[in-house]
Structure formats: structure tokens, C-alpha cells
Amino acid sequence: MNLEEHYNKLYIESMKKIMDDDYEVDKLINSSLDNRFGITLLIRPPDAVKNNIQKFLNNIKTVEPNQYYYKNSDIHITVMSIISCYEGFQLERIDISEYIDLISKSLIENPEIEIEFRGITASPSCLMIQGFMNNNFLNSIRNNLRNNFKNSNLQQSIDKRYAIETAHTTVMRFQNKLNDKLQFLKLIEAYRSHHFGSFKVKNLELVYNDWYQKEKLVKKLHEFSI
Predict the structure, then answer these.
(1) String of b and e for 82-105 (b: at least 16 CB within 10 Å)?
(2) Has residue 129 got a pLDDT over 70?
(3) How far apart are CA 20 and CA 94, in angstroms?
(4) SS3 assignment, position 131
(5) Helices 3-19 & 181-190, crossing angle to 10 degrees?
(6) Which residues, other chains included, contact 2 with Cβ-Cβ below 8 Å and sequence gap of 6+?
(7) Number of C-beta neighbours around residue 72 at 10 A
(8) Average pLDDT of the segment spanning 126-140
(9) Those residues with Cβ within 8 angstroms of residue 180's Cβ, 6 or more apart along the chain or in another chain
(10) What are phi and psi of 180, to 5 degrees?
(11) What is the distance between the alpha carbons of residues 188 and 18, in angstroms, rounded to a whole number?
(12) Residue 52 confidence (pLDDT)
């Protein structure tokens, strides 16, 4: 996959939808009735990079204060959604040690993955920071996970929604109608190629999580050094 082309296509399509008021407003973000949970393998960027993202978000907030913005504690890159969030998932019903063993077997020794956060893209429901990888090892780990889980009897829903190949992070979701659509789009365009920082991936986290990866609901299950 050419990430530059992929992000660009997504950006063009999504900006048109936003312009046409065809974007998706998420009404479940602050709902106490939202009971969707799952388990995810993820990467957490360092504070310096997350702080750069917050500067961008603070600018967006001046135009659109009523949208949902990710806190530093919630910003992440999804390596693989092992069990996609669904209503009523219970951690007690699976043996986490089996998942940890299978993930450990899927990792690559010294992959030296570096991720650069550069530019903004979007979907009809959210804004994302574009992530670019310096090599293909993250996707090799993903393929190992796919194969190993497929050949196991463990509960999983890998690739059910879509096959992940990117290294983006979602930083804002629409939870209300836009207040000033034109100013919002203009501000996004200004950050289209903005450099937010690069970092080497030292570890991966396996977490029990809600749909939005809110810190108060997330439980860390294991940390893998790579």
C-alpha cells in the first residue's frame, strides 16, 4: 500500500463529504449506555509527539469547541484490533495468557520500527494524523498475527471491519454539527503537511478497551518489548 496515496484519497473524499454536510456525528461518545468493549494491540506515541498534536487540537477547538478531542492518555496507533468492540464482551470469558503467548510468537526480533506523524487526513467521522513507517515490519507483525490467530481456536475478529495497514492515529471525532465548517476546513488544510514528530517504537500494549480508548475505561493487560 502506498500510504501517501491512501491518505490523500481519504482526505479528498472526506473533505467533500464534510463540505456537503455528509459527515457522521457520533451520539454514543458520552453515553453511559455504551457497553462496547474488546481487546486491542496498540502503540502509544511519546509525550513530545502527543504534545505537538495537542497544539493542533487547541487550534481546532477555537473554531469547533463542541467536538470530541482525544486526550494525550487516549492517543494511540492500532496495531491490531484482536477482538473488535462489541456489546457485552467480558474479559473473564477469555484466557488472556493464551493471547499473550500467541502475540509473543507473532513479534519480530529488533524490527527497528520508526513512525513519522506528518499531515492530517480524515474520514466522514473523524480527523486523523497521518503515520508513515520507515519499513514494513509493522505490517509483517500484523500478518503474523492474522495467520497465528486464524490457526488458533481463540475468539478474535481480526480484519472483520477492514484490514489495517496504516499507522494513523485518530485525534478528533464529530459529536455535534460543525459550528463554522469553512473555517474548520481552512484550518485543516493549513495542517495538511504539518510535521508532528517521529519516534522509534519500543513496545506494544495489549489492552482491554472501549470504542474510544478512554483512559478511565482501558485496562492494560500486557506490554511487549520489541
Answers:
(1) bbbbeeebeeeebeeeebeebbee
(2) yes
(3) 44
(4) strand
(5) 160
(6) none
(7) 14
(8) 97
(9) 63, 64
(10) -140, 80
(11) 12
(12) 98
